[in-house]
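Design a sequence for this backbone.
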């Protein structure tokens, strides 16, 4: 990024943005550092002062993602994200990017299953730029047919490049489609191609009106500012925006599996892959389905135990799956393990592996099952357990080293429960025992609770014409 002499300081600040020291030490005691305010129109504001560098990150998070969509209109959350850059009556198409760049800043946006986020990183004395731009497009977005058709075409091309032309992305998409039947995690965040093509401008207008209002948003600012002064500015910029109606957030939740689901995807690819997904609870337990408070507490404890299982199985070269599949038996080129702790609804604990050319998918599955069964059968040693906890704690602390990550963590927790739950993470991880590990692996990482997708490479002449080229024993869509 080119910078004039006037903005040399902000350019230098962005070079150190990712290493800005956290305003607190190790345990992450945020309760006394974060200021929470709810404006009269329902907008929640979270402010965290960090004066280590003269920069700020300004983030607006809306409680809307692909989980809020419906059959036939998937992808609308992501498409609206694109439309948010088409401008208002005051700021024309493309002008927002120019304004941010002229002020020496960075900006972007992203959509997930649970939320949509817009952010700017700026020198702290330029915070007024974000206040103006974000309050303006929260209420005054101009949605016109020409811009809508352009952005819809851009999104469709994005889907072709990132999913339809990417064999592994197709396999992952099929994992979620098969793993969930009625729950909205069934469809991808970018949406199904035919749904994107069917979307109309009126759909986007109605979606914007329903979900983009103060009562459904959280504003998070972290960096070099005075919270009292900034809060007054936020009140002036956002306080007059109409409150709107708080959208409902309840969605259908899938019933437990009654047996393994298996999918085979045949695509032109260099390597075969295996992707497994096991249904696991979200951090809030099953409260949305009316579960008791005791059960909620147990489900949340299970979520923290599954964090440790993720580290045991897949973090670092000495983790169990890395040691067995990659380094020991030399079956896989790479393996990955992921546990979605901050998920609005119950989600999938995933294990994936890229199969080496001279090895088989069956070998990978058998070796993975052996490691899971060993966790179920044998208590983890204190040394190995402590190592996994140390890795998780280090990762958690390192995430606080960037003001952007500090803001994002606050918001991600707020999207699923409350930002205050951040302080529970480290104590909860430290409290996990070897018995907890055995219990959750026996309960969740079982064949009957699993969806498995196999990516099988085929020659170009044998690639199916269907976008997914997937076969399954069950009706996926």
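Sequence:
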């Amino acid at each position: 990024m080119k910078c004039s002499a006037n903005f040399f300081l902000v350019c230098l600040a962005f070079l150190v943005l990712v290493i800005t020291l956290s305003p607190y030490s190790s345990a992450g005691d945020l309760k006394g550092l974060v200021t929470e305010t709810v404006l009269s129109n329902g907008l929640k504001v979270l402010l965290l002062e960090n004066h280590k560098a003269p920069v700020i990150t300004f983030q607006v998070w809306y409680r809307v993602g692909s989980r809020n969509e419906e059959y036939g209109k998937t992808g609308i959350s992501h498409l609206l994200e694109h439309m948010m850059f088409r401008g208002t009556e005051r700021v024309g198409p493309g002008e927002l990017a120019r304004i941010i760049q002229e002020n020496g800043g960075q900006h972007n946006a992203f959509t997930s299953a649970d939320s949509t986020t817009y952010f700017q990183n700026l020198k702290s004395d330029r915070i007024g730029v974000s206040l103006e731009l974000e309050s303006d497009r929260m209420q005054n977005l101009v949605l016109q047919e020409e811009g809508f058709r352009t952005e819809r075409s851009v999104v469709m091309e994005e889907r072709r490049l990132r999913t339809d032309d990417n064999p592994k992305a197709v396999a992952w998409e099929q994992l979620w489609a098969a793993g969930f039947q009625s729950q909205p995690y069934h469809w991808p965040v970018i949406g199904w191609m035919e749904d994107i093509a069917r979307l109309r401008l009126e759909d986007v207008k109605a979606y914007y009106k329903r979900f983009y209002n103060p009562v459904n948003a959280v504003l998070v600012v972290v960096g070099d500012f005075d919270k009292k002064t900034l809060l007054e500015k936020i009140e002036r910029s956002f306080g007059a925006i109409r409150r709107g109606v708080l959208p409902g957030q309840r969605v259908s939740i899938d019933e437990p599996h009654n047996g393994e689901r298996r999918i085979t995807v045949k695509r032109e690819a260099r390597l075969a892959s295996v992707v497994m997904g096991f249904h696991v609870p979200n951090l809030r337990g099953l409260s949305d389905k009316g579960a008791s408070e005791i059960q909620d507490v147990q489900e949340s404890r299970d979520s923290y135990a599954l964090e440790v299982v993720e580290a045991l199985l897949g973090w670092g070269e000495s983790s169990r799956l890395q040691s067995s599949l990659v380094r020991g038996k030399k079956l896989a080129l790479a393996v990955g393990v992921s546990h979605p702790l901050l998920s609005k609804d119950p989600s999938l604990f995933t294990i994936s592996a890229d199969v080496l050319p001279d090895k088989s998918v069956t070998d990978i599955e058998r070796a993975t099952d052996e490691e899971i069964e060993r966790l179920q059968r044998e208590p983890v040693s204190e040394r190995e357990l402590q190592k996994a906890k140390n890795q998780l704690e280090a990762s958690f602390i390192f995430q606080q080293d960037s003001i952007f990550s500090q803001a994002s963590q606050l918001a991600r927790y707020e999207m699923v429960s409350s930002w205050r739950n951040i302080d529970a993470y480290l104590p909860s991880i430290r409290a996990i025992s070897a018995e907890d590990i055995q219990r959750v692996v026996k309960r969740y990482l079982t064949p009957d609770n699993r969806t498995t997708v196999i990516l099988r490479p085929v020659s170009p002449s044998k690639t199916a014409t269907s976008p997914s080229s997937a076969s399954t024993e069950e009706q996926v869509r």
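The first strand starts at residue 34 and ends at 38.
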